[in-house]
């Protein structure tokens, strides 16, 4: 007599697990890269906000500052900003992130640096 069994066979279950594994292997690297892009975007955003703060300070003092405290600027969590040089003619700064190694974003205003005028460049 034939018995009427319901359910999945072992082969069917193994095929489903293999398909899920293949899909996960494709998706995980894409999500890992997205996190790094978010950190780089945070660095660029902080440099643009720094430019706004520098311009506000310049309108009062007629020169740019090398101190983040002078311009009342606090970077995002994990972002480290260094103002390389500043004068009445212009300034330049760079940003790094604690979670990203080997990437640095720079910005310059007044032709003092190698970056495009007022535009953050990441390398």
Question: What are the main properties of this structure?
Answer:
123 residues, four-stranded antiparallel β-sheet, rod-shaped, 4 strands, alpha+beta, 1 helix
Write the layout of secondary structure elements.
Layout: H1 10-61, E1 79-86, E2 91-97, E3 100-109, E4 121-122
Antiparallel strand pairs: 1-2, 2-3, 3-4
Distance, first to last CA? 73 Å
Could you give the order of the helices and strands?
Answer: HEEEE
Average pLDDT, to the nearest integer? Answer: 90
Q: What helical percentage do the residues reach? A: 40-55%
**Counting H and I runs of at least 4 residues, what is the number of helices?**
1
Low-pLDDT parts are none
User: In which order are the strands of the major sheet placed?
Assistant: 1-2-3-4
Shape: rod-shaped
Strand content: 15-25%
- Sheet bearing the most strands, described? 4 strands, antiparallel
Count the strands?
A: 4
How would you sum up this structure in a few lines?
This protein has 123 residues and is an alpha+beta fold. Helix content is 42%, strand content 22%.
């Amino acid at each position: 007599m034939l018995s009427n069994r319901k359910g999945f066979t072992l082969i069917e279950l193994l095929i489903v697990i293999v398909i899920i594994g293949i899909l996960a292997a494709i998706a995980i690297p894409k999500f890992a890269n997205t996190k790094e892009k978010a950190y780089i975007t945070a660095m660029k955003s902080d440099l643009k906000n720094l430019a706004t703060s520098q311009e506000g300070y310049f309108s009062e003092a007629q020169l740019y500052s090398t101190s983040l405290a002078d311009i009342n600027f606090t970077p995002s969590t994990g972002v480290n900003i260094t103002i390389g040089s500043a004068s009445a003619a212009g300034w330049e700064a760079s940003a790094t992130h604690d979670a990203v190694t080997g990437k640095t974003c720079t910005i310059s205003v007044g032709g003092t640096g190698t970056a495009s005028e007022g535009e953050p460049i990441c390398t």
